[in-house]
Amino acid sequence: MEAPEQAFPVPHKWWVCLTLFLGTLSVALSVTSIDIAIPSIMSSLGASLNTIQWVLTGFMIARTVLLPSIGWLGDRLGDRNLFILSTAVFTLGSFLCSVSWSAESLIFFRVVQALGAGPLIGVAMAIMYETFPPRERGLGMGLFMTGWSLGPFFGPLLGGYLTENVHWRAIFYINIPVGLLGIVSAYFILPRKSPTARQTPLDWAGFATLTAGVTALLIALSKGQELGWSSRYVWGLMGTAAILLFLFVLAEMRAQSPFIEIGYFRSLNFSLSNLIIFLRVFGFRGTNFLVSLFLQKGLNYSPLQAGIFLLPGAVIMGIVSPLAGILADRVNPKVPMVLGFVILVFTLYGLSTMTLWTSMAVIFFLLSLKSVGQSSLNAPINIVALGALPEGKARMGSGIIGMSRGLGEAFGVACLSFLLERYAFFNLNSMTPLLGASLAVGERGEALSELRVLLVRAGQFGSALEAKAQSLLAHVLLTEALTHAYQKLFLLIAAIYLILAFLVLFVRVEKRTQ
Fold it and tell me: What structural domains does the chain harbor?
């Protein structure tokens, strides 16, 4: 058994930060960098889109369902050992992914990778929270979120560069030396802390119902985009998830040693914080998803160009997140939270006015401002949520927070991609539908005449001229419909952030977080 944790000098906490940073940044990059390599992986392994999507979906499901287990695992292994084990499993999974020989093997090895990634992030947050004294925990959470938040910005850029210039397997190669360094660093640097003297048995009923319920829910969200939300299969999965999660709550209320302490949600701060985290991540992932589509589909940027365009946001995140944490330590944490949501409301309103003719300077400014707003929220909301729990329970709290964040990511992409299609369809019908030809004869003839003139000036002629004019008109109408859809969705996210700014006012700040 490990020796009890000893008091360590102040400089030691910075080495702890660096150790945790290696793990969280590696996972964050892995989550986002592979997205851009999917087309290359499909070609290399000869896989269909329906098969290859499980490279992403399998990882997301396995990572999310394991997050709540951090409390039980940490009680039995200790935070330090759990971090080392999680990092080792993640690194092993990365190596296996790099040598995968088929789509099926890659999917399986991505699940192995996720088995390490899930506990790693949660236990890293708990270690960071308890490493810093109460008066500096805002700074600790800000530094932690810096590593986790850089992934969405650097990941697509790194993935695009390695895929184009090296190989898609290189995305997994880079995790191996970083993971090994993180393991060695954790062994010598992380504080040694004994596991709890009373090692409770695993609540199998709670674990099974929660795992099955969340898995069914995430598969339903994934299949909803593929099969349509009216599919009986999708609705069956939704119903199954609802029943299983209801059974989970019943099991936890009766369990002597529950898998998740449902009683924590009696705290208004903890419940509100998780709701705010869920909706904040919903908006964050949704906004990134929409902006990426707009840059690539609307403005015809390549994936690498879009990644470069978003890169300055990573620098802003790295600077603002610790500053917001310091501010949360010195004043009421609600101040940076409300300020962050207000900034995001104005930013999303600005994004809702974007068109294909909006200057790059304006878009760049809005995206930079969005990073400032998001960075202002990370540390304060985490210290409020964890501060609502009894001292020493940060590990289980971080697991619950991680699950709220994972579900927010899944719901954000699924719901907003569905709404984007719906809004674009409605816009086509309401303005000048492409199918059904409800353009007035005079308007259609005038538009096609203008397009023919432009095509002739561009050197186009012959029998294909009419077909090209028709195609160009269809493209213009569809682009216009999608642009209006983006605008409506940005306004929707702005409304969500406005509601969250109001909810923050109901958070009660404990003395321990001041």
Answer: 1-198 (1.20.1250.20), 434-487 (no CATH)
